[in-house]
User: Fold this.
Amino acid sequence: MLDALTIAVSAAALALAAWCGFAAYRDQPTKDWHFIGMAVVTVLALAQLVVGVVQLARGEKADEGTAIFLAYLIGALCAVPAAGFMSLAERTRWGSATVAAGAVVLAVLEVRLFDIWEG
Assistant:
């Protein structure tokens, strides 16, 4: 895995969590700008998925197993979009809080991905 990409995804996810958390604090639902932020974070997670699969295809191995590594990569890719879809159903401050929680989950998954790859 590329350490710089893992750090970039984590930092972007935490920035999104802070931004949406602040919107929830101000009693605001998710807005178009939040969805643009979610798209940026999702594209970074997709890039990480592609890099991870390419490295596995080249013969490199995750220390804790390929299946677990792929499951975490797919989960990391789905965390923010799933929270974004849930926020569409709840057009109150809790929608923003849901996205903030999903972004924190992504940051935690990134730490775990790093551990799975490096051992």
Notes: Residues 32-57 form the longest helix (26 residues). The CA atoms of residues 48 and 82 lie 18 Å apart. The mean pLDDT is 94.
